[in-house]
Structures are given as C-alpha cells and as structure tokens.
Amino acid sequence: MLSTRPTTSSLATKLISAGALREDGVPVLDALLARDTRLIDDGMPIFEQGERPEAIEVIVAGWAIRDRRLSGGRRQTVGILCAGDVCDFNVFLMKRADSGCHAVGPVRVARIGRRALNQLNQHHPAIGQALWWESMAAAAIQREWVANLASRRAEPRIAALLCMLYARMQLAGETAASAMPWPFTQGDLANACGLTVEHCNRSLAALRKRGLVEIRDGQVTFHDPAALARYATFDAAPFHCDPALLPFAEEEARPHAPTPMISADFAPAA
Rounded to two decimals, what is the model's pTM? Predict the structure, then answer.
C-alpha cells in the first residue's frame, strides 16, 4: 500500500531535513510534483534502458529497482529507489538511458519536464539549488553502493545496504518505530548485494540471530539501529547532512537543527 502524504512531499521533507531547502520553497516544489503524476503497477517499467528520456522522474511514493540489462538478458540491480528519490536530475543531458527502472509494488511517480525545470531554475533558483544537492547526495550514495559491494563480507554488506535505505527513508519522513516497509523478495536483495539467494538467506539469519535486524511480513524491523550501523561500519558521509538526523546516531547526539545550505546568491529577492 502506498503511503499518503496530505501535506509535504517526501522529496521536500528530505531537502528540508538536510538543510537544502527552506520552508517557503515547499509549496512551490510540491505544486511542481503534483502537476504531472502517474501510478505505475508492480513490475512495470518507469523507464527502459535505451529509451530517450523526456522528463525527470521523482518517486513520490513506493519503491523501485534500478538495473542494467546485461548480455544474455540477465539484469543486475544497480540501485534501489524509495520515496523522495530523483531519477537522474541530469536526464536532459542523456541521449539514451543507460539503465532501466521498474516498480516494486505500486509506485506513484511525478514527472518534471524540461520546460518546467527551466522555469523553476529561472523563478525559484533556491529550489533548483536544492535539487542539485539531491543529485550530489544521490551520486555519493551510489559510490557507497559500489564500495559496499567491493569491500564488505556478506553479512555486513546486507547490513550496510539496509542502513542506507533506512537512513534515506528517515530523511524523507517515511519510517516509524524502527521499521520500514519491505516489498522486495530474497532474490531482489541477493541481486542487489551480489550474492546467491542461499548465501543471502544464511546471512539474514545470522543478522537476526545477532539481534540486529529482521525481515518479516513485508517489513524490516531494526532491533538495534545503532548496533547494526556499527556492525556494518556504516558511513554517514555520503548523505551530506548532519549525522544526528540519521536513525543510527547515539541518543546523546540527537537532535540537531539542520544547518541551511542555501547560498545567499540563490536566495530569492525580498
């Protein structure tokens, strides 16, 4: 089931949490996201690898998998998208999409066209700058995804991926009570972590036995988020925000008001 957000969008919530967007920019951004939306059914493409992009796609609600189609028809997961994520802010520089993206469960997607983006940058440059912050953080998180696959054993690799997703959901205001929804199969998780399904299942059982995390009935429950982050050697640096905003901060480190990142050069005239 898709979450319903009657006021602030997940993207605006994330940008405000990180200090990249001011409150007065929320109505403009949310109105832009509400202008052109569509509902994508489970398993259906949001966009296909090789197609010519026509708009920036923003995940408003739900989950999606980003993958590369390899020779022989096999697909390799290269990213997981959740509410508040932007699919390629620089999409208008692409001739063809170098990867595909499909829905996992129902997904609500907003589309920002070239003209709408140009108008946003012209009339609301501070919001455009906030979207550039999102693009920077997304690229950093993607680099952390690669480092995770290359440097960690199976159990901490899974733990680190779950930490990354949980932190992103937290910033977007999509988590509650040390848990997050989980529409993925064990095969999806195994593919994302570069493991066989059997190895993935054994590693999940070991994490559960340690009392750190459990996946059951379409939900991930974090029994001890801070301990899970320590076990995974989770690094908050790619999120480019105050680490105290993330769900793994020790209690004495919480909370800090986000420091505004908006440059005065981009602030709207009084």
Answer: 0.88
